[in-house]
Amino acid sequence: xxxxxxxxxxxxxxxxxxxxxxxxxxxxxxxxxxxxxxxxxxxxxxxxxxxxxxxxxxxxxxxxxxxxxxxxxxxxxxxxxxxxxxxxxxxxxxxxxxxxxxxxxxxxxxxxxxxxxxxxxxxxxxxxxxxxxxxxxxxxxxxxxxxxxxxxxxxxxxxxxxxxxxxxxxxxx
Length: 173
Description:
Blueprint: E1 10-12, E2 21-26, H1 29-39, E3 43-56, E4 60-74, E5 81-96, E6 116-118, E7 122-124, H2 125-134, H3 163-172
Parallel strand pairs: 5-6
Antiparallel strand pairs: 1-7, 2-3, 3-4, 4-5
């Protein structure tokens, strides 16, 4: 499983009806294990995504919904295990490759901020969910109320390396 296929959830565009498609997906154990490793968390105990995909003209699609991840992490202060729930909003436009970029046929006056490409007739929903979660999961989680008290123990002051040169200069005067 490569990094861009941590969550291997795709949809064939030809399988999406004109009225749209409502989807609920839950990650299996293998996907959750790979996701935990990729996100740097102790464990992913649950990942559920609920979304709809609507087709539009010119072979475009829009996906709207949310994903929810339950993760086990370690508090960076107390080192106690903690449970966290992360929710991400999914609002994505998918466009055929010929409508993206600067080439002929590209839609310069796009309403979509940053449309995703339709690759080989598929919408890669798993990659989008992974990217959204990766930008949301707290890499330094703290237990509620955990605080870190810093004590600055005075370290002996190092001699200025130029102090010796200053002494030599004074002797020479």
